[in-house]
Amino acid sequence: MEKLPKSFCLLSCVLVLLLSSVSAVTDDPQDKQLYIVYMGSLLTGKEYTPMSHHMSILQEITGESSIEDRLVRSYKRSFNGFAARLSEPERERMAQMEGVVSVFRSKKLQIQTTASWDFMGLKEGNNTKRNLAVESDTIIGLFDTGIWPESESFSDKGFGPTPKKWKGVCSGGKNFTCNNKLIGARDYTGEGTRDLDGHGSHTSSIAAGNAVAGASFFGIGNGTARGGVPAARIAAYKVCNSTDCTDDAILSAFDDAIADGVDFISISIGEAGEALNYQEDTIAIGAFHAMAKGILTVNSAGNSGPSPTTVSSVAPWILSVGASTTNREFLTKFVIQNGKTLVGRSVNAFDLEGKNYPLVSIRSEQVKGKILVSIYSFGSDVAVATIIKDDPNLATVTPHPLSALLPDDYDFVVSYVNSTKSPQGTVLKTEAVFNQKSPKVASFSSRGPNTIAVDLLKPDITAPGVEILAAFSPLGSPSEDEDRDRRHVNYSVISGTSMSCPHVTAVAAYIKTFHPDWSPAMIQSAIMTTAWSMNASETGVASTEFAYGAGHVDPIAALNPGLVYELDKADHITFLCGLNYTSKTLKLITGEAVTCSGNNTLPRNLNYPSMSAQLSKTNSSFTVTFNRTVTNVGTPNSTYKSQIVLNHGSKLNVEVSPSVLAMKTVKEKQSFTVTVSGSNIDPKLPSSASLIWSDGTHNVRSPIVVYIDIPDDSV
User: Fold this and answer.
1) Which among 78, 320, 498, 612 is annotated as catalytic?
2) Where's the Inhibitor I9 domain (predicted)?
């Protein structure tokens, strides 16, 4: 589910955001809807009291002297505003008030659902270089379904006092206690910060959970579960309950988290299958102001793949993360009595102890005590186990014994059942198997191109998001079918870009422990330009840079990128001006009065670590240029030479000028231009290349992508 970010405004601007579907409504007190009234940055002066101002505005609009039942929240720490229940006529009157910038409707957002750290090279304990003193002073704010404070993953054993910079609170509700690991908790749902779902505990432990030996899902995946920065502190902001996340809650969380003193915001929440315009995207607005305060926001790309144009996190000041596989997979074998073994996928914790059971097809009415070979994609409550047909690249937890077979294997089983007298078989308990396969982008991971800023490549990066074992809430159901699955677990297996997001949040925090003065953009650049390159593993758009951006995150290489692409608030405003946003729209996003110059910079010339351009459909021949500036964060007296590598069989002509950069000092900046030309490119696929700046030690790689508008069926 998506949230509204808090904005900062130099003027007393007001933004009203509708939080629920609006049908025909009247002034009937029973017909009130929840709105957010955003009023920019806090006014200075001892005489100004935000709460009093909010109440007086509400009294003026409603004509009521008592508005306690109308005022839901006041935002008064990092920016100014409030949430209130208003009728449609009242909303209209609010929109006409002097200083109101916009009135728009918000949508419900969705949560996007550990050997992974070893897979990426971030080993446990002394096997990885760490700056523990700084890591212990790092605070990660997680916007999610809350957290299970009693989990071993969040124990404060061995932790020192809370960092002095922390200004937050522990307001988790009844029987909820923070500690020196879980240093803060806030609830915006009315349920308390305790995680009733499991999603928030899972993402929190991926990012910064303690190393917990012997963690498993009923023995499956047994090992040490840990976060990427286990010495870091966690602040939990519960913005979602089990069913949805509301805009007013996320806006409050942004308001608090920035003022509380978090270093990073990790938000595994997003719009389902589509991107919103920046001025309507609450996460983008909130993240903009977090960026202005030096806080990097990491966001899941979405779970609506593999179709094109489904990525929902598309702002350049957000690090947007897709999901990919690791070198571990969960396999569930189905053994037929004739000795043939078929390997399927699921997370099946049930042990049939090798006993054979009769096999029946869906046409049979008598399935009790038998294994059902079903044409449907779900298991049976009555059968001993179920065999289904799937084309899976991930395993999910099932409430009953189940194995999902590839189509050919499933067809073989159907044929065997139909042609064999008294066929029998058994389903084995799931095994965790390690392989040497290269990471592959998950089918569910949302793909580009970016529909809001067509010359900005999204997602930015990919990270482990398939079959991730991490902490869970004992009150949540480990499978999606909570009515049938009443098991209670402390650790569970989930897949989603929700899981890849906190992996990258942890990598960003890891980088900052060694480079505390680096800005959010420098950290993002380091992550993107040092990523593992990924080759197409399938065909179509689903296997290109629109799936994985710059590639797969590499935590160790990101510590020493050599060169970085720097950006600040002013650069992002210039980018928005290049999108031809009006001053009124810019105020919605930036929170301040902005006037664009007449000579707007093309959006593709934002100093971003990737380069992308959408071409006109009418031009058979084309030439596009990208202007970039890099900053030396490596060693003095370094000479970087450019190299171009063409990808996916593209026939682009790419020239870099100058082709050599001689960096005499650290922090020195040098600019260059990339010119890309070609003709008659494939309208169904992007044409791409990689620019690599190398000094013999560092390889600073940026993807270059040009494309014609991609049709929705180009999968």
Assistant:
1) 498
2) 35-111
Give dist(CA 613, CA 135) in Å, integer: 38
Options 199, 202, 400, 698, the catalytic residue: 199
Instruction: Report yes or no: 320 and 311 within 8 Å, Cβ to Cβ.
Output: yes
Q: At what angle do helices 569-578 and 583-590 cross, to 10 degrees?
A: 150
CA-nearest of 134, 231, 232, 137 to 514 is 134
Establish whether 171 is a catalytic residue.
no
As a whole number of angstroms, the distance between CA 233 and CA 294 comes to 18
- Could you tell me which residues come within 8 angstroms of residue 51 by beta carbon, excluding any fewer than 6 positions away? 74, 76
The CA-CA-CA angle for residues 92, 79, 38, to 5°, reads 10
Catalytic residue among 137, 144, 197, 260: 144
Cβ–Cβ under 8 Å, residues 16 and 37: yes
Is residue 498 part of the annotated active site? The answer reads: yes
CA–CA gap between residue 661 and residue 89 (Å, rounded) = 61
Residue 253's H or E segment, with its range, is helix 247-260
Residues 604-634 as b or e (16 or more Cβ within 10 Å = b): bbbbbbbbbbbbeeeeeebebbbebebbbbb
pTM of the model as a whole? 0.89
Reply yes or no on whether 620 is catalytic: no
**Which residue in the block uniquely carries the two structure tokens 């007001």?**
14
Rounded mean pLDDT for each run of 10 residues along the chain, 715 residues in total: 28 33 39 74 68 81 84 77 82 73 59 74 85 96 98 97 97 96 97 96 98 94 95 97 84 93 96 87 91 97 93 97 94 93 95 94 80 86 91 84 94 93 95 88 93 97 96 94 88 96 98 98 98 74 92 97 97 95 88 82 96 85 96 97 92 97 98 95 90 97 91 52
